[in-house]
Amino acid sequence: MMRKKSTLRILGGRVRYYRQLRGLSQAALAKDICTQATISLIEKRNKVPSMEILLQLVNRLGIQLADIVVEQADRNQRTLNQVESLVRHGDYQAAEAKLHTLVPEKFKEPSATRRFYYFQGMVELYAHEQPEEAIYYFGRVLNPTLSNDHDLLGIMATLGFALAYANQGANERARVYVDSALALMATAAQPDQEALTVALTLNWHLAQVYYALQDYAAVLTYVRRGIKRAIAEESLFLLAELYALEALALRATGDAEAPASYEIAQALAQLQEADAASDRLAAQWAELSA
């Protein structure tokens, strides 16, 4: 019986990038997981290891499996992964350009369709400042024929509603959706290998909503919770973005610690070559300083 050829493709260059970003040698990354030779094969020849090894590696690197593994035949998922990274770093113009290359009606998986609509909602909200359009797309994410509102995308779309309403000045509606998202978070279960990135993502999104609501005490609660978790697990995932929100919240309240957080956020953004995130933070900082 012929063995079915794997459709998974590992991005060895991305593994090397995240390893170096963490300051790890190949031997340090491999310790108690696999051999250094395995890491070398992954990085140089895109050798796909066992799923058990892969999950342990992404945990140590503090990233998601989708950051380094793609389906060979699925260009849509690869593009959506690129869009996710652009949105995370605040480069909404580039994210929109990528989205324009996709046709969601032709997607094979409902999850890809939901991701597309979520990112489109974020683009409408931040690139075009069109909260009504954003609400439409977040609603598509929660389409009952596609979604499970207890999963991460469902929770993020619910927070997207809160962001959109906060940007409209409809704070009471925004808080209704924040409360709904918090209730969903309390009951949602995520696989162990995704626990860190999910927790940081949700803390970041909650902090964004509270910043839009000008509830700076709540912003600081969630960003510091995320920063503490990221540092404890030696992860750079969303760390620059969390420090950026901390800096802005502290600046808005006149706290003397704001410049220190700003410098950390900028240093982390530059380390990750996140120019759009760095420029966006600089612009927001200048606006608060005016």
TrEMBL record:
One of the record's GO molecular function terms: DNA-binding transcription factor activity
InterPro entries found in the cross-reference section: Cro/C1-type_HTH (IPR001387), Lambda_DNA-bd_dom_sf (IPR010982), PlcR_TPR (IPR041315), TPR-like_helical_dom_sf (IPR011990), TransReg_Diox_bact_type (IPR050807)
Residue span(s) of domain HTH cro/C1-type: 15-68
Key words, A-Z: DNA-binding
PROSITE patterns: HTH_CROC1
GO cellular component terms, semicolon-separated: cytosol
Cited Pfam families: HTH_3, RNPP_C
Gene3D superfamilies hit by this protein: Tetratricopeptide repeat domain
Name of the protein: XRE family transcriptional regulator
Organism of provenance: Lacticaseibacillus nasuensis JCM 17158
